[in-house]
Each structure stands twice: as C-alpha cells, then as structure tokens.
Specification:
Pfam family, one: Alpha-amylase
Strand content: 15-25%
Distance between the termini: 28 Å
CATH superfamily of the largest domain: Glycosidases
Bound molecules: 1-O-alpha-D-glucopyranosyl-D-fructose
Strand order of the largest sheet: 11-10-9-5-2-1-13-12
Protein name: Glycosidase
CATH class of the largest domain: Alpha Beta
Family: Belongs to the glycosyl hydrolase 13 family.
Number of helices: 15
InterPro entries: GH (IPR017853), GH13_cat_dom (IPR006047), O16G_dom_2 (IPR045857)
Shape: globular
GO molecular function, one term: alpha-amylase activity
Helix content: 25-40%
Length: 521
C-alpha cells in the first residue's frame, strides 16, 4: 500500500441515487439532484462519493440489475448528467466512485436475451450458468441453491421451440442472471466497462458482490435452511477461491490509472479468507461489516475492532469501517430507536471516525434518520418482499428519500408528492434545513466531527492502543494521539486523561454519561 494514497484515510459518502434528491419531479432521485446538493457534501468534508448503480437498468433491484454497463439510465439523467457530476464534484475536490455489478447482469442485457434466443448448447449460453434440470423431465432445479432474496436460485426458461427447457442461475432476483466468469468474454467486457468510466474521470469503483463471481465446479448443493439476505462462510454460492484470479485481473486494469481505487463488497467473516481479497495484487479496500452486525455493547465493539484490525494486518491493508448502507438496518433503529437509538448512533459515529483508516457514511446517517418500519405493504419494492412470499419486508425501510426542507413531505426531495417511497410526516424535525441552523443537531454534529477529523493532526496515523476502561466502556488511543471514550454502560464514568475536544452529547459534571462518546487530545 502506498502511504500517500488518498483513499487510505478518507471519508466516503454513499449516495443511494433514488433516495438522495430528485431534480425532475418524477419522485425518484437522480444525478442532477446530487449535483444540486454537492454543497451539502462539501459542508460535511467528505473526500469521495460512492454512487450506487446508475447504469441502464430495468430497476428490478433498483440498478443492481444492469442492462448496459457503459451508459447511464435516463431515469437518473443519462450520460450528460454523469459528466456534469464528475466535473462538479472534482471542482469541489470530491472524488467520485461508482458501483459496478460484475457478478450478474440484468435479464434485459443483450447477452442474456441472445442466450435465451440461441437455445441449449450454444456459445451464447456459456456466458451465464444454464443447466439442464434434474428429474425424468427436467422438472427439478439443477441444485438446491436459494436466491439471497428468497426462493430458488434457478429459473426455468421456455426454449425457442416453445417447450420448458434449461434453468439459469441467479443468486439474486430472477432478473439478475449470474455471469460465467470462466468465459473470457466476460472479463474482456468488464475491462471495457472499467476503462470506459476511468477514462471519463471516475476515481474508482465499489465492486458489488466481490466474493460471488466464481462458482465451485459441479455446483454442489448448499446446506439446508439458509436465511434470506444472509450467508455463512461455508456457503458454496460465494467465495470460491478462483474468484481471486478475477480480482487480480481487475487490479491489473485499474493499476493503469494510478489514483483509482477499488472497494470490494466482501461478505466473508473469516479473517484469513476475507484478507485474501486485500492482497497487494487484488482489491485496494474491502468493506468490513463487523460494526453493522453488533449491538451497542462495549465487549462486542472491542471485539469487532480487534478482529477488523487483525484481518487487515494479515496483508498490511487499510482498515475500513461502516455502520450502515442500503442493505442493512439503519443504526438509530438497530440501537433501540427513538432518542436512545439516536444518542447511541452518534456515539458510534464518533467512535468510528476516531478509528484509523477509511470510513463509509450512508446518506441520511448524518441526519440521524431511522428505518421507516411502517411502510404500507403495497409500497414495498425490494424483491425480497415478493421472493420471500411476503415473510421478509426487505430493505426499503432504510432507503426512504432524504428530507431536505419544509414542513411536510416530500420535504424538498422532489416537487412531486408521489415519491417512490412515502416519507414520514415526523421527518419534518430531521430536514437538512432544520438541522443546519441548530448547533445541537445531528447534522451539525457530523459536520463538526468530520471537520475535526480532516483538520487535526491527532487524526493522522494508523495505530490503535487500548486504554484501561470500565468493562462497559470502550477507551482507546489512536493515530496521532487522539483518545476516544465511549460509554455503553448505565452510569456516568470519569473521562480519561486529556483535554476533551468534542463529544456526541453533553458531558455531565465533567463525566461521560451513558450512550455518549468523547474525543480527547
Ligand atoms: O448485495 C449483496 C449481498 O450479498 C447482500 O444482499 C447481502 O447478502 C445482504 O444484504 C446482507 O444483509 C449487493 C448489493 O449491495 C445489494 O443491494 C444488491 O441487491 C445485491 O448485491 C445484488 O446485486
């Protein structure tokens, strides 16, 4: 790793484009909405944007089903809009990284349409996983794999002769057929995609399902009872060792663009296996999801940090931290909701921003948004809802559009009242406009914390040392001498030695109250 790499101590801000800001009044966020609000990101001192997929897509999984990886969907503003975004972001010193989705395409991709038309045994089918079914008439799927969103991972097609025929594999929705990365055409096309965006000035990529592109020979059955939206390390659907060859190929391409970064979505829990993706010739960064998996518990927090640092230590990689994204429950809700959930979310944010390495902030986190748990069933759009037979409501609750201004929905997100997901009336108290003027607000808190993180020398450096603390608190000294203390217990505790420079809530008689974190130097 190069010590000077911009991404080694950066703040990435994830924009879920449908939900950020709508510029054309269709109720769905778009790229020009983001361009119009870059001042918000500048005031947050973020270094880079991670933009969730905006390529041409039927939107079965809101853009994670890509029909043309080298064009922008008209819903998001087309190519002119991304060109405006690249230059407007760069003018403000903000980098732009894009999501790429190499594990699968949309079923509307010309390759998949050609595969359907060409029939069994053709080269066109070799770009995907087409297999004959089991049973005397092929009436059973080729194996027992389930889709991450629920139901079988196999869908049977109607062949050109009009009869039911082969099955194709889709680890996600039916409309997201998995690509066969053993076919060299697949890599060649992905290389074209990477170069296409890098040549237009994009600063790097978040690589979707980076542990999914290789499948074990023979596609052996998985164990029974795999839960929707989760998988363990022994799951044959993911993390087959030959995936590392794919990453080495990607790295060779990206290395032609010296400042470009790759960030892999690697849902692998075992440290040694996870770390393999961060070898010097593979990904630059890997998401570490441990902080999204734990409660507000001092022991769990210490363990997650220790474990993450141990994992990146294996191949001398850069640590990354994230509390939420568009796939997981928002932290305010995870930590208990309401006032207590928000206090804890702010405390955890302060802790995360004290840790050495790179952080990812999910849009709305800076406003203290909770999940919207009471979305009416008829508005749910995550494929998980349908595919789980209406047993899992899915991820819409953490994707509700951002409230910008005003006293009623759509809160300046759009000029249309018909936003793609309804916005709760009580978010009137959480708008950017309302929080901007309030020094105690969560937005002001994030702005101040991120400004300190950017400006103060105590935030340089890569070390972390645990300091003595009560068992239900977390206290460490990190980087250039910054001390961070978080109280996850039920009574106030004395602050460690040093001068307090910031806290996630008021200190009480010079002590650190429950559910509050502080920085000292
Ligand atoms: O997610 C991949 C993935 O494995 C997740 O679905 C994960 O298992 C789950 O969310 C854990 O809680 C990526 C994208 O982030 C997601 O939005 C897409 O739906 C998915 O890939 C398919 O492209």
């Amino acid at each position: 790793m190069s010590p000077a790499a911009w991404w080694s101590n950066a703040v990435f801000y994830q924009v879920y484009p449908r939900s950020f800001a709508d510029s054309n009044g269709d109720g769905v966020g778009d790229i020009d909405g983001l361009v119009a609000h870059l001042d918000h990101l500048e005031r947050l001192s973020v270094d880079a944007i991670w933009l969730s997929p905006v390529m041409v897509s039927p939107m079965a999984d809101h853009g994670y089903d890509v029909a043309d990886p080298r064009d922008i969907d008209p819903l998001f503003g087309g190519m002119p809009a991304i060109e405006r975004l690249i230059s407007a972001a760069h003018e403000r010193g903000i980098k732009l990284t894009m999501d790429v989705v190499p594990n699968h395409t949309s079923s509307a991709h010309p390759w998949f349409q050609a595969a359907l038309a060409a029939g069994p045994g053709t080269d066109a089918r070799e770009r995907y996983y087409f297999r004959d079914g089991l049973g005397s008439a092929g009436e059973l799927p080729p194996n027992n794999w389930t889709s991450v969103f629920g139901g079988s991972a196999w869908t049977r097609v109607v062949e050109p002769d009009g009869n039911p025929g082969q099955y194709y594999l889709h680890l996600f929705d039916t409309e997201q057929p998995d690509l066969n990365w053993e076919n060299p055409e697949v890599f060649d096309d992905f290389e074209k995609t990477l170069r296409f965006w890098l040549d237009r000035g994009v600063d790097g990529f978040r690589i979707d399902v980076a542990h999914g592109m290789a499948k074990p020979p023979g596609l052996p059955d998985a164990k029974e009872g795999v839960k929707v939206l989760s998988h363990s390390d022994d799951d044959p659907r993911f993390n087959h060792p030959s995936v590392h060859e794919v990453h080495r190929g990607i790295r060779k391409v990206v290395d032609n663009y010296p400042d470009a970064v790759t960030i892999g979505e690697v849902w692998v829990m075992d440290n040694a296996l996870w770390a393999e993706y961060l070898r010097p010739d593979e990904l630059h960064l890997g998401f570490n999801f441990r902080l999204t998996k734990i409660g507000f518990d001092a022991g769990e927090i210490r363990h997650a940090i220790d474990n993450s640092l141990a994992a990146i230590g294996i191949h001398d990689a850069v640590p990354t931290w994230t509390l939420s994204n568009h796939d997981v429950d928002r932290e305010v809700t995870r930590y208990g909701g309401g006032e207590i959930g928000l206090r804890r979310a702010r405390a955890m944010a302060l802790l995360m921003l004290a840790l050495p390495g790179t952080v990812f902030v999910y849009n709305g986190e800076e406003l203290g948004l909770p999940d919207v748990l009471d979305l009416p069933e008829e508005v749910l759009q995550d494929p998980t809802w349908e595919r789980s037979g209406h047993t899992e409501r899915g991820r819409d609750k953490c994707r509700v559009p951002l409230p910008w201004s005003g006293d009623a929905p759509p809160f300046g997100f759009s000029t249309s009242d018909d936003t793609w997901l309804p916005m709760p009336a009580e978010w009137a108290a959480l708008t950017v406009q309302k929080q901007q003027g309030d020094p105690e607000s969560t937005l002001s808190f994030f702005q101040k914390a991120l400004e300190l993180r950017r400006k103060r020398v105590e935030f340089d450096g890569v070390e972390l040392e645990w300091l003595t603390s009560p068992s239900d608190a977390v206290i460490f000294r990190a980087r250039g001498g910054l001390v961070c203390a978080l109280n996850a217990g039920e009574t106030a505790i004395p602050l460690p030695a040093g001068e307090p420079i910031f806290a996630s809530g008021p200190l009480v008689d010079g002590q650190l109250p429950p559910d509050v974190a502080a920085w000292l130097v």
